[in-house]
Structure formats: structure tokens, C-alpha cells
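Troubleshooting log. The previous structure file for this entry was overwritten by mistake, so regenerating from the original sequence record. Sequence copied from the archived sheet and checked twice against the printout by T.R.
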Amino acid sequence: MKNKIVFLILSLIFIVTISITAIFVKKIYQEKIIPVNEKIAIYEKLEKKENKIDKKIQNEIRESKNIQKQTKENQNTKQELEKKLNKYQVTYNKKVIYLTFDDGPSEYTMDILNTLDKYNIKATFFVTCSDNLENISKEIIKRGHTIALHTCTHKYSYVYSSDEAYFEDLNNISNLVYKYTGIKSKYVRLPGGSSNTVSRAYNLGIMSRLSSSLHEKGYKYYDWNIDSNDAGGANSEQEYSNVIGALQNSDRDINMVLMHDTKVSTKDSLDGIIKDALNLGYTFSNINEYTKEVHHGINN
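Regenerated output below.
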């Protein structure tokens, strides 16, 4: 009997202890665990929301960059189209003068560039391997003119000795121009023009072959239809009269004027030539991709 009482008491104590422990654990769970779980759930929701916001922001940033890139590309395209339109309009004006300067650069080239700047006129320079080619070729490009090729040595006895010699000499000046300016010019003027006869003394038929080969190699070559005769010894007054007189009587679409920036007479006459040509209603252009080639009749 006594043992049963002890067992009952111990059982009661055990049940009470278990109950109290359960109550205590439940209280801890309700007061500690549940709030923590709720906070974790809230945090996870906030984290998901924040990730969505971050993703949206990143998408908007990418979209903004794409818009900026497209805007820049559109601006570049607009500028390029405007340049082409300007060249097209100038090229197809019925009264266009192309001032071309051969054999330089020389001590007079900077003065010529300054005169062109004075009237905001662009011209074309057929350069050779002169001592100041590096500095002045950069200046020619910087001021918006066309740099073209007139062979390196300009020595008839060499450049017209063979087709290979001509293209070797042409490549020499082409490579230097590219080295100094980054431009691979495809505009050429043959020494003496394509109609020269001096080449007969060195190689019969070479001008016929070279004129074809230049086109095959992707070049355009330009002769002239107005000669200032500065290379023939004309002084500045005579040079002015030669050019302006020819322009007054010209009905050509393209007026390709031959001058030499190695001649002081060209330097001194240029201002008057430009001023009076403008008064005659002419516009000026440098040779560009739209400029039709001007060719002489080939005599060798």
C-alpha cells in the first residue's frame, strides 16, 4: 500500500513537471521563436522586393545606356549625312572650282593654307616627299583639306622608267602620308599629267598602262582643265589673269585649277583669285568621293 502511494506521488510529480515544462516551452516558442520566424519571413519578403527593385534599376540603367548609345550613333549618322549632303551639293553646283596645289609642301604652303582659311575655302594638295611633309601634311588635314599623291621623288627619269618604278614611288609617298596623317589617300596626279610626252624618252606606252593600272588598284587620277602656268614662269599678275580669264569664259561644271604651292607667285596671287572667283559666283571644293575625274588625252 505504501509503495502504491509513493508511485502515485512520483507519477503526479512527473506529470506536473511535464506540464510545467510544456507550458514553459510553449511560452518560449510563442514569445521567442514565432516572432523570430515572422521577422525572418518579413525579411525574406523585403529581400525579394529589394532584389526586384535592384533588377528593375539595372534594367533601367542598361536601357538608359542603350538610349545614350543610340543617341550618339544617330548624332554621328546625322553629321555624316550632313557632310555627304554638303559635298554632294558642292560637287553638283554648276560653277565649282577645285584649287589643286602640286609638288609641295614648301616654305609657301602655310601662307597658302592661311589664305584659304581667310575665305573658309577647302583645296587639294598633291604632295611629294619634301622635308616638311610630316608637319604640313598634318596641318593640311587639320584644316579640312584633301591630301593627295603626286609621287615621292617627282623625277621623270625614275617614275617613268617602268610601271614598277612608278608604283614603288607612289607607294613611298602613300605610306608616308598614312604614317603622318592616318589617311590612305586614293587621289593621284601623275607628274606632268597623264598627257605628258616626256615619258616617251623613258618608256613607250607607259602612260596608257599607268592610267589603266591606277584604276585597277582603286585610285582616281586627276589632271586639270585650267592652268595657272605658275610652273611655266608666270608672275603673280599673270597667274591671276590666267585663272580668272579662264573662269570668266568657262562653261564647265568642274574647273580643276593647276597650281604649285612651291611658287611664290601662287602664294601672292591666291587671295585675288579667290576673291574675284567668288564675285563671279563660283563655289570652291576640295576633291572628294563625289568629284568626277578630269582627264587629258593620253599621248604615250
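DSSP finds eight helices and eight strands in the chain. Archived copy saved in two places this time.
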